[in-house]
Amino acid sequence: MPAAVVIGAGIGGLSAGIALRQAGWEVTVLERAERMEPVGSGLALAVNALRALDTLGLGDRARELSRMQGRVGIRRPDGRWLAHTTAERAQEEFGDSVVVLARATLVDLLAAALGADALRLGVTVTGVDAGTGVVRTDRGEHAADLVVAADGIRSATRRALFPGHPGPVYAGVTAWRGLVPWDGRPLRSTETWGGGRVFGVHLLADDVVYFYATDLSPEGAVHGDEREELLRRFGDWHEPIPSLLAAVRPERIVRNDVHAFATPLPAYHRGRVALVGDAAHPMTPNLGQGACQAIEDAVVLAHAVGEGLAHAVGEGPAHAVGEGPASVVGGGLAAYSAARLERTTAITRRSTAICRATKIRNPVAVSLRDAGMALAARFSSALMLRSVRGVLEWTPPRPAASGRGPAARA
């Protein structure tokens, strides 16, 4: 059986481990944290990510654990709508919708599907040999036919494989995220744009609200009290923003500066190593596609390396771990890079362009931006959906294992 080592047990790493295991690989996922404690608060799974999860047999469960969005759109700080759509319209357009759930919920779902026997916690990777597939850790070495680097935006594996690449750059904004209990009142999913600032609100399952906010800030700025900082910046915006900020516990607020690639990598692989998720293409959160693209990566990677290697191993004598048919793995990884590089680069650039639009502070420019969005939405109520059609209309490389994927709908 071919062996794969996955570095990192985030969304991309767990998804890759599941996809490879389902394709017949022996999988070991290495995670340096001693416990599975997901960083962040909430996330959106768009149509494309749900289709990818369908191929793993997890799409329906993700839908059940989340809350389908009703009316969604963009508002001004005074509450006036600039553009909006509905979950029903998305369902009509794409056969599915966007769901929002806690990041911890998705990580727990993925970890359970992977299986505890494949997960090694408290293991720090110290080096990777791309040529041989040997992964060195503080607890010994692992030899593999394939190494999947899902070690995040500051990926040490990426730096080792592409030492000349400039890496992610600061996008000019800092981001806050938090979870707040809600009292059961109806709550619309909105993203509010002001001068240089954004505040998003989404109701999750179990009456919990996920909020996020961004604002211009010097990189590395330190704030003594993040809740007070948020109230200072957003406290006079429309409800429920002030109420949410008054209710959130300061320790439940997560803040991080936003970084993304300005220069794409030349490929998402070297030797026997593949990069997935933020290790391959860190992007701003403005399209809500970071986690979605990581799950896409996992499904495409498993398909690209799975069939050819399984066929090669099945035809000949058993291969020792680390001595698998490297030419087949290499061909699969080249196909993976070819399938993912153009798409993820385009999505990264588009997300960066939206980020630039949210950073506008000049009052005249803000008024022109808002007027343009409102006018376009007035002439086309489907504007928001059509603007992301190219992102959402993605088809997985293999049929769905269950749920609402192409195989189930056929």
Automatic annotation (TrEMBL):
GO molecular function: FAD binding; monooxygenase activity
Keyword set, alphabetical order: Monooxygenase, Oxidoreductase
Domain FAD-binding intervals: 4-161, 266-309
Pfam families: FAD_binding_3
Keyword Lyase: no
Keyword Glycosyltransferase in annotation: no
Protein name, per record: FAD-dependent monooxygenase
Lineage of the species this protein comes from: Bacteria, Bacillati, Actinomycetota, Actinomycetes, Streptosporangiales
